[in-house]
Amino acid sequence: MYNPIKELTKREWLIWLSSLAIVLVSNLLTADLDILTLAAALIGVTSLIFAAKGNVWAQILMVVFSILYGIISFRFRYWGEMITYLGMTMPMAVWSAITWFKNPSEGNSSEVAIQKLTRRHVIWLTVSTVLVTVVFYYILMILDTPNIVFSTISIVTSFLAAALTMLRSSYYAVGYAANDVVLIVLWVLASFENPSYIPVVVNFVIFFVNDMYGFVSWKKREVRQAVDM
Fold first, then answer.
1. Kind and range of the H or E run holding 89
2. Which top-level group of life is the source organism from (predicted)?
3. Given 43, 139, 164, 170, which is the most exposed site by the fewest CB atoms within 10 A?
4. Is the pLDDT of residue 160 over 60?
5. What are the domain boundaries of the chain?
6. Around Cβ 43, how many Cβ atoms within 10 Å?
């Protein structure tokens, strides 16, 4: 359980502090400041920069973020988001934290060992994704969820991202980036009804940038870890 802040490079400090500043300003400028949304965004951004380092603290913070985001989604009746983060992302983040903790890199014990996806992994992901899509679409339909198509896509991308995180794959960040795009659309639609949700849109734009950095970071580390083995 290393202190991940000590491992940050100058570039990562810049990305992290810039992201925090943008999130903070965008939330403070809104006419109706929501402390819960602000707290969730700050924790989420911090989790992502630690995830880019492959540090287990990222998953611990993701558990906290999932709880806060679930509450935010509940208030707007985005049942899919609430169910996804409280019933799927949060427990999978706990599982990922355990997996990452048990599989440190040989070259640097403060980061997780990256795993290449096998054919078995791909088959499992495909089958489970189809099942998740069918089951959750039915649940969302029963709950009369707003913007059900985008909510369903969000669930699918969230599941894939969480599953790839658990599998320690570099492509976890691509899954989360795809989910960020869907969430940007969802909260833009929500903002049409309530402008106070505009900061949430900004939050997920920042998340997207951080997730793409995470993917680049993991691919570079994947090459390095292959050499160290």
1. none
2. Bacteria
3. 139
4. yes
5. 10-101+117-228
6. 19
